[in-house]
Amino acid sequence: MKRRTFLTTALVGTGALALGVNLYSPSHVKISEALDxxxxxxxxxxxxxxxDGALPEIESQRIVAQNQTIEAIVATMGLLPDDSRxxxxxxxxxxxxxxxxxLLTGSMTPLLMRRPAELVEMLERWxxxxxxxxxxxxxxxxxxxxxxxxxxxxxxxxxxYNKPTFLN
Amino acid sequence: MAIQDPIQQxxxxxxxxxxxxxxxxxxxxxxxxxxxxxxxxGGVAAEILSEAGLSVIIIEGGPLKSSESFNMEERRAYPxxxxxxxxxxxxxxxxxxFQGRAVGxxxxxxxxxxxxxxxxxxxYWAKEKSITGLSAESLKxxxxxxxxxxxxxxxxxxxxxxxxxxxxGCEALGWDFTVIxxxxxxCWNSGYCGMGCPVxxxxxxxxxxxxxxxxxxxxLVSRAKVSQIEHTNDKVYGLKAQALxxxxxxxxxxxxxxxxxxxxxxxxxxxxxxxxxxxLPDPYHILGKRTFLHPTLLSGAMFNDPINGHAGxxxxxxxxxxxxxxxxxxxxxxxxxxxPVHPILIASKTxxxxxxxxxxMAKFNQLQVTIALVRDGYHPDSQGGQVRLxxxxxxxxxxxxxxxxxxxxxAFASMAELQFAAGAKQVLPISEGMPYLSSWTEAxxxxxxxxxxxxxxxxxxxxxxxxxxxGEDTKTAMVDxxxxxxxxxxxxxxxxxxxxxxxxxxxxxxxxxxxxxxASLLAQRLTAKPQ
Lengths: 168, 531
What we know:
The complex is a heterodimer of chains A (168) and B (531). Chain A has one domain. Chain A has helices spanning 2-18, 31-34, 40-50, 59-79, 82-95, 98-105, 116-127, 132-150. Chain A is mainly α. The model of chain B has no long low-confidence stretch (mean pLDDT 97). Chain B contains 13 helices and 23 strands. Chain B is globular. Chain B folds into 2 domains: 6-150 and 203-290 and 463-525, FAD/NAD(P)-binding domain (3-Layer(bba) Sandwich); 161-182 and 291-461, Cholesterol Oxidase, domain 2.
């Protein structure tokens, strides 16, 4: 049922675009991929927000970096202990459902239909929340996305860092 | 340059190693002594007992990894070598915990800092915790033995720039500091101790005591998680373990271990967890309580010159200026050290995201980081955390008390004062809402007023201690001062879970020295001819 809801959401997004609403939409992520169990579409929305200023500026490189980060996130999630992964899955599924969104963000508007500034506003509300659950939701997503991004040597250019080459 | 891998060479020479992920049928293994865990306690015990002529089996929950797989990347090291892929946290997620999970335990991934148990801790244990026979004097020969065995000596080279800042700050302020002793031989000064030493210089258990035990015929079983201690009235008669797959999930194959004597060296979370799960007698409800973490605060500082905190021996200077300043039971003290600066570690242990975080990361090489490890477990308002069983494992509930936050505020101030004294241009206390501070005057005021709270202030730990305390009083201790169970003739505990408080110092040498003493006594007992 969740998948069907999500599909509807995607269609609503398309309809809104057709109406000329300036929506943020990552064209490099195929919707069919978003319908798998790895929450790829959701991460494709969150990555540019968490990594604004860190991702490469050139569009083609940026897309490669975003896709690498999604792969790293999927790999990271596979390494988490069952309890942590279950918690994270629950959060991701909430963010993909309208009721969950209402609960977590006070609005049923799908994340796909929110502008980056609105996503920042959502994260900032969680970050400053008086509810520990909201703060841990923010911190869990933040750590997952940021750690996954910086796990790849390809993403260390801006750090001016490379691991030593004495073993090469 | 190709590095010889002594572990691969040892395996080729015929070491008895069973990778339980490859075992397809239930097996029973027997020895004189079975040791659960291969870290600082299990490693030392294995060498001493096998030297005494006893047959030994070492069971390790993590994999056997060696230098050929240590590629200096966090993305490989964390899942291969750390508990929960280095994502372990306390129940409320306010403290991130780094603990090793591989052959060699945390010694495979620690930063090599080797400090004898502080005299203040030993005196407090003798006075308040019914511990007998552990004094600086009685432990001296055991520390000397292990210092010699593991080549522990003062770092003779210039500290890296990250540690140099700590020293320069202390010098400028007239604060105490010490050059760190490290367990290395032929160190390349590369800075990757935390990802497994790529050049086999770190004298971890993986490279020293475990190979020595294997050379004497001991058996190492890796990727096997001991799940149950089988026991009757006053005897343990077996250990049940689950074989784990390469991704460390149970394969369904069960292993049974039988021995004359059993040693738990699974570390300060897993030793008490295993005892609780096995329903070992605990009439005074001690197990899992008083678990200590040296909860640690971080302060970043921007320097004009390159710090390159990723390069060079990660820890070579510490300051004990504030550890025992108010006496053991007074206000919580804190030890000042520095951590290595690597991409995932720093990206995840700093705050925020987007532009502000990207700007911080762009100054990666200018970033000096100082840490303050808070000495927990002495003050009445510092009782540590509690490990509890859950359906799938355990949780560690560690309340951060007012006494801790009081120490945290003082620690942030000390770190900022030190960093400015060392030449920092800006200081960033790692706690939500704190801006870059540009002078000690500004920092002093801002830190005095800053909000400190769980989840708002970044708190980390790399030292897990307690949960199965030693002592002579059975109301407060599970094992005696020699690590022998108060309830079972043939069960000992040899790891950091023995400590009745935190140490106020990095724990590895305390575990080595105390285990060397206790394992030697046990070896005498087990090899004594019947009268």
